[in-house]
Write a structure and sequence with these properties.
- By secondary structure, the protein is an all-alpha fold.
- The chain folds into 2 domains: about 110 residues; about 300 residues, no CATH class.
- It contains 20 helices and 2 strands.
- A two-stranded antiparallel sheet has the order 1-2.
- Helix 2 runs antiparallel to helix 3 and helix 6 crosses helix 8.
Length: about 475
């Protein structure tokens, strides 16, 4: 019952937040934040294994469902509070909670068709709501509306393609019915390989992998960075995990034979190399965020090149850790842009000097994204690469890890440069006390003290937002080191 309760609370709070956002912004934020915290509490209380029957479909709570729900919902609560600080329309928590609910249902159900349909429906909310908001806030950029519609069609198309692949193997009498009994039959192998490539194509469309990345890149340009993790990092992770589970059960490792294996590895490395290079050459931090998520997904699809159980476990570790890290990076990008009014490195000289807490947070994000040998995120990356290219993991893994070290390192170097004019003109990242402190805390009554608190919060908006980024960074570092228990 815990899985069902979690989904109901998340969908209810998410829909209320979406509906209330245009008129009652504070209500939308409050419902979203408290709803996220409630979901996190329910997830923490979820038993290790439980099941419930709903309309003939079983929902099974697993450690993966619990840990994904805890990390996603806690991140949403922090992003919702940060959204208050950066201003704008509250478009993050509402669709994020809807996406979380459908992801939990999709990962808990044993029916792959229901899982894929739920992810397609929930993913559209994560694109439509922030996309339309970005269009309304940017009347000088009318292309944002067509970009949003293309993004919605891409997510729906990915879901339909995934459903088509699942439908091929749904019947024992169908073309995949002989995979388990005749895995060495050339015809069966060809059909299984085609089904696997169809599912990988659905993943590529949903995650915006190169060369299918144009819609994702254009979409990320027109929305708040805070909306990107739910739509791509977390939503994409859930889609990939469902696709891997189906591929293992319905197709098995024999489907990942040449030439399908070579095509999957080629697609992965196109996204890995070109995504990493794009993040290195772009100066605006939103593009760095977007292409880094794309690169993470390029690593994840290597799981389809072997479909072994240990590789699926590595993919779970990698996807949850990467999504948590990119949530912290998105929060950092939004706070920096809100604080200093710029999003290009040329305008951000000395940002870390001006706000040391943001600098410490970014250092943690960099370390978590790159990883170190022996910790979960490094080992899961090495396992995924090694499963696709046995014997080369020791060489390729450090090279792939070097890319985030370079593109995030560029941002870090800009932070320790002398403070530029744009950064100097922004509010200080150091905490400070206004005159309300003396009157409210030293000379006034307790009522005066309470009345002075909002003024002190407003005066310390930037340090408080930086503290929120630090909290998300701590979550990212812990997940990167320990991974998930869902192995």
């Amino acid at each position: 019952m815990t899985v069902l309760l979690l989904a109901v609370v998340a969908i209810g709070a998410g829909l209320v937040a979406i509906v209330a956002a245009p008129t009652w912004r504070r209500v939308a934020v409050a419902v979203g934040v408290f709803g996220s915290l409630a979901v996190a509490g329910i997830a923490l209380a979820m038993p290790a294994e439980e099941s419930v029957e709903l309309g003939g479909v079983g929902l099974v709570g697993t450690p993966l469902v619990r840990e994904l729900a805890v990390a996603w919902s806690a991140g949403l609560a922090a992003l919702g509070l940060l959204e208050v600080g950066v201003g704008g329309r509250p478009t993050v928590v509402g669709p994020g909670l809807v996406g979380l609910a459908v992801a939990v249902v999709a990962l808990a159900t044993r029916d792959p068709a229901s899982s894929m349909a739920a992810l397609a429906a929930g993913g559209v909310a994560g694109v439509l709501v922030p996309g339309i908001s970005g269009w309304l806030d940017g009347p000088d950029a009318p292309s944002r509306l067509p970009t949003t519609s293309r993004g919605s069609l891409a997510i729906l198309g990915a879901g339909l393609l995934g459903l088509a692949a699942i439908a091929v193997g749904a019947s024992p009498a169908g073309p995949l019915g002989s995979v388990a009994t005749s895995p060495d039959d050339p015809t069966v192998q060809m059909v299984a390989a085609l089904a696997l490539l169809a599912m990988v194509s659905a993943v590529a469309i949903r995650c915006g992998l190169i060369p299918l990345h144009v819609w994702a890149a254009r979409f990320m340009e027109g929305v708040s960075p805070l909306a990107i993790p739910a739509a791509f990092a977390w939503g994409g992770a859930a889609f990939v995990l469902v696709a891997i589970d189906w591929s293992q059960v319905a197709l098995g490792p024999s489907a990942a034979a040449d030439p399908a294996r070579s095509l999957i590895i080629g697609l992965s490395f196109i996204s890995l190399v070109l995504g990493g290079l794009a993040a290195m050459v772009h100066d605006d931090i939103e593009h760095v965020l977007g292409y880094s998520i794309l690169q993470d997904m390029g690593v994840a699809i290597l799981a389809f090149a072997s479909l072994e159980p240990e590789v699926a476990a590595a993919a779970r570790n990698w996807l949850v850790a990467s999504a948590t890290i990119k949530t912290a990076l998105a929060a950092w990008a939004a706070v920096v842009r809100s604080t200093y009014g710029g999003h290009r490195l040329a305008d951000l000289g000395g940002w870390a000097r001006h706000s040391p807490v943001l600098g410490i947070s970014f250092a943690g994000i960099l370390v978590a994204a790159v990883g170190l040998p022996g910790i979960a995120i490094w080992e899961s990356r090495a396992s995924l690469i090694g499963s696709a290219m046995p014997g080369l993991a020791g060489i390729v893994t450090p090279l792939i890890a070097l890319m985030p070290a370079i593109y995030l390192g560029r941002i870090a170097l800009a932070g320790i440069e002398p403070i530029g004019a744009a950064v100097a003109a922004g509010p200080s990242g150091w905490p400070r006390w206004t005159g309300g402190r003396a009157a409210g805390w030293s000379e006034g009554t307790r009522f005066d003290l309470v009345r002075a608190i909002p003024a002190e919060i407003r005066a310390n908006r930037v340090p408080l937002m930086a503290l929120g980024v630090l909290v998300l960074t701590v979550m990212a570092v812990v997940t990167a080191i320990g991974g998930t228990a869902a192995t």
